[in-house]
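Escalated from tier 1: beta-D-galactopyranose holo job.
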Amino acid sequence: MNLRSAGPGTGGIAPRARFDSGLPELSLDGDWRFQLWPSLDAAPGGVGAEDFDDSGWGSIPVPSSWPMHGHGQPAYTNVVYPFPVDPPFVPDANPIGDHRLRFDVAPEFLNGALLRFDGVDSAATVWLNGRLLGTTRGSRLPTEFEVGNLLRERDNVLAVRVAQFSAASYLEDQDMWWLPGIFRSVTLLAHPAGALRDIFVRAGYRDGRGELRVEVDGPDAGQVRVSVPDLDVHDLVPGTTLDVGPVRPWSAERPALYDLIVSTPVQSVRLRAGFRTVTVDGAQIRINGNPVLFRGVNRHEHHPDFGRAVPAQTALAELRLMKQHNVNAIRTSHYPPHPDVLSWADELGFYVIDECDLETHGFTFVEWRNNPSDDPAYREALLDRMARMVERDKNHPCVVMWSLGNEAGEGGNLAAMAQWSKNRDPSRLVHYEGAWRSTAYVDVYSRMYAPVDEVETIGRFEDPALADPALDEHRRGLPFVLCEYAHAMGNGPGGLSEYQHAFENSTRLSGGFVWEWVEHGIHRTSPDGVRYDAYGGDFGEPVHDGNFVIDGLVSADRVPRPGLLDFKKVVEPVRMAVDDDWRTLRVANLHDVSDLAEFALRWAVHEEAGQRCAGPLEPVRVAPGDSAVVPLPAEVGDARAAGRVLTVSLVLAQATAWGEEGHEVAWCQAGSVPVEDAGAGAAVTAPRTGDGGLVLGPAVFDPATGLLRSLNGLAIDGPELGLWRAPTDNDRGAAEGVADASVWEELGLHRMVSRTVSVTASADGLVVVRRSGTAGRDHAVDVTYRWSSAEAGLSLAVDVVPVGPWSGSWARIGVDFTLPATLTEVDWAGLGPGPRYPDTGQAQRLGWFSSTVADLSVDYTRPQENGARAGVSRLRLRDPGTGAQLTVRGPEFSFSARPWSRYALAAARHTVDLVPDGRLHLSIDHQQHGIGTASCGPGPLPPYRLTPRAASFELRFT
Ligand code: GAL
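Tier 2 regenerated the structure:
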């Protein structure tokens, strides 16, 4: 096994399109004999021989990633190679997985057959019936061998030796688990003489008409006929171009596909053709002449139990989930996906950037010396990868751009890949983010994580000129995409709205792709039998990047995180607004193609007691890019009153392939929940001594500290000033210098201590002054608590005044309490049902919500601040056993309630580390610091930053 060759695999046939040939196929998936060896030296010779004795081996399913089946361990690195940067060599300690399968075939495979591997990670040598077929490289790309002459009906022996690492591993440094194995299917394809080798469907669209040209490669190309029955196209001769007349064009919004049959005397192949044309016009991406805006995500292939061998139903379900959340575009980061994914993308409707299996990011740590992207020794391998992607996927209308790869530096091999692709398929744009400085050989100006102000500058064509005027002119003519933005790691991403606003307000900005769709957590079970998701470092890896692999809009189990719901709202393709009198509705249609014919409108008015009235609205038709103002039925305006909320929803009028009838796509609200006055009115009671403390109305205070001991008979501790939160992944991110979390640690926000300055009782109530500071520092915060008791309840006015030299930011300004853990039920009036921080929570609506304390928490894979509800004017906590309850009112506060402390939350590494401590931890926050996306990208924008400041707020407890 030569693992040192920088070249492509050997022995395979030339790359070609993936299609269902209409000829017999035999799946070789299933249980194979398997044995893992620690190195090539330790592996036996002769595994390819028919009579090799594998009786002592175990077995493994194919497809699979071995470490997910107990053979070796997963290992996670982001950028750094897990081996010395010494191309083309890899260490001797290189896991080798030997696979063997015995199988019978039907006679129709004996007249010519191909053996296809859809994906082997990472380098395989293949033998059939004792004969060497060749080698595979390019893990996420297919390899096909001609095998007809070697097959027999009974007891064929297929042997595959897979090395985890080879010279090609330098090309596969994507940010993901290192997971070797035959992770996609192995199939035997009958391929008799006269069968088609390749088909290229070129289906364009211009001015309402389709243009079709089908190229074929096969021994009897002259006998090939093409038909598109629905277009009355029959017997089209391959290689000729036909104006097929009026067609429905393909787009992500209306993915019209036509059955296209290619027949030969030996077979009939059915393909799905979509007519569409991708152009750049005035630095704007157009599809079928219409400007498009990508509402995109980056999609990796990962499953928490199976690694890279993602079951088909999981992948299909996640594509539907994307559509349900207004995603219209996918970047296949950072390799070609399972081929079925593109067929589903054709059918469901997604614009796809198909990315080549190439990343050499780890060379950044050696100043890009010997980067394969610029090394002639690797040129053939890079061109081979590009060709195998383009050839495999060329018939998918969903693919609108070919991407050369990700983070592979710069170099002549990349330019050569671009050139090859333009020659072979000029109908798609060439993308490569790494070329953004010159953009010399790409068709789009693509960036990742650029801050929103820079994106806006680019959108206005005001980006600084390049030194070379020709290159500058070229780049200025290119449309812009953010191939990665809004790093969805942990709580977040914050700041989506500002990006979307920028995208929608510049023709040059074609939108972006959130990083990323799915978290790459791996299921594990704690000693107590509780399942949790593991991440980098949990498998004893000597070099790893921790939880940086946990940065998805959905968990590894495909459960939407709050960020996905926010994304859905922020990118909604229709924006609606109701006027103040609830008499008219403004509808702005941001679709590229749809005139809203597929949607219905509904309205509903809610009040605290529930839904008051509801009904349908007349359907509206608005041209894409246009807006209209339509009257609302009189009933709607007549229902308007204080304490009521109107919601208008745009929903699917009929079920589609991805959504049920009535599925909501966009919505707006008007009205308000009652914002109750926090003032208690005239004081009716004065504090008195009793019950072992100072009694004020329903409350008992500690006379020495001025802190609460009980309220309404409930044991309560607090209030304590709260300026800190358990850092989020974004708080920990230092993308722009110092991480907010480090600033807070340096300021000592997590270890503030307090002393009571004074406790003063008067006829008006109780005034408690406390100073909070931190060890070794002379900055402090003076907090004055003014308590008064009236019929309406116990009122608290809080004044927060920073003292001394503060700088940086605070995580929040609030007051913390602990209460009996038996208060497990929560309801509130405000925004909900989910969490919201200053720059997240766009998905949350006005209304009246209830939950349990347990359900308020978001179980981020690495625990961190989460679950705050915002815009709240009334919060009620209830003990379902005793009926005891506590109500907090105030103008627009946010709260969090958890069965563990912030410190426990911050200390936990995994969800299983969080254990209820017997108290309820309640925080009532006046302000919060934004979330931003500094785990990779910019932090919270200036308006969302909470700088140390004085603050005053009022609450009322009943
Ligand atoms: C990008 C990279 C992605 C991922 C992301 C951070 O630089 O292209 O693969 O690593 O950063 O999660």
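The chain has five domains: 25-190, 198-276, 279-568, 573-671, 688-957.
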